[in-house]
Amino acid sequence: MKVRAYAAGGGGETSTAEVFVVRTNTDPDPTANFTFTTTQSGSTWNAAFTSTSTDDVPPIPTQTWSFAGPFATWPGGSGPTFAATGLTPGNHPVKLFVKDATNRTDEITRTVALPGTPPTPTWAPPTRTTVSPTESDFTWNGVPGADGYEVETFYRNDQHQYVNPTTEYVAQPSSAGGATMTSTVHNNEHTCSVQNSCFRTHVRAYFVIDGVTYASAWSGDIWWGL
Ligand SMILES: [Ca+2]
After folding, report:
1. Which of 34, 189, 190, 215 has a 20 to 30 A CA-CA distance from 130?
2. What is the overall mean pLDDT for the chain?
3. What is the Å distance from ligand 1's center to 23 Cα?
4. Which superfamily is assigned to 34-114 in CATH?
5. Residues lying with their CB under 5 A of ligand 1, a single-atom ion
6. Is the pLDDT reported for residue 8 higher than 90?
7. 26 CA distance to ligand 1 centroid (A)?
8. Residue 50 alpha carbon to ligand 1 centre in Å
9. How many angstroms is it from 102 CA to the middle of ligand 1?
10. Using H for helix, E for strand and C for coil, what is the string for 141-179?
């Protein structure tokens, strides 16, 4: 960078010099890493995490654990180990953030894959919002650990049977947080002559571990018309 120097009594620019700024913090960065074990407990899981992070000056003073996926409400923790209980089946990203004594940082996220049946989605207000004569938005509470959702809509035929389902797939968001999911459902442009009972829609959550798909039970049904 360049610095300009001025005479104390005024008189304008007197000289220009190159100044080289040298980073004085040459402390090596820490490297975040961890291992974990899981134990099934009824329909849920417990997980025990151990930091294997390294730094030139151990121990690393700041080690913070958090669930990095959407909809999870499980508490995080701090320190070289972390235990989580009551985890539902699914793919749960867990993040370890580390910071050494000179504020150098690193982080790593690993996915804890827990086989089993995911929680069943529940509808959330506003459960259904009419978008157009052939579309409605449906809203449900997101399921932590899901990879996505399957929204199925049946059409009521002249024999009062719900048939010919159409399926819409909704991907799970990748970022942490969130509260609800929304899908725009198309009614296949069937005309509707029966108020509030032309269609039947339900949703389920799913995830995949090692090529095996695990799906939740279907949510409650919503019967709807135009
Ligand atoms: Ca260091």
Report:
1. 215
2. 89
3. 15
4. Immunoglobulins (2.60.40.10)
5. 27-28, 55-56, 100
6. no
7. 9
8. 20
9. 7
10. ECCCCCCEEEEEEEEECCCCCEEEEEEEEEECCCCCECC
- CB atoms near residue 169 (< 10 Å): 10
pLDDT band at residue 18 under the 50/70/90 scheme: confident
Closest alpha carbon to 203 in 192, 191, 216: 216
Domain ranges across the chain: 34-114, 123-224
The reported pLDDT for the residue numbered 195 is 67
CB 27 within 8 A of CB 102: yes
Tokens representing residue 99 in the block: 């910071």
pLDDT, tens only, 189-202: 666 666 677 889 99
HSE at residue 2, side-chain half, CA atoms within 13 A, is: 3
- Is domain 123-224 classified as CATH 3.90.960.10? no
Dig out the tokens for 10 from the structure: 């005024």
- The separation between CA 63 and the C-alpha centre of its own chain, rounded to angstroms, equals 21
Which is more confident, 8 or 24? 24
With bands split at pLDDT 50, 70 and 90, how would you rate the model's confidence at 225? confident
* For residue 13, pLDDT beyond 80: no
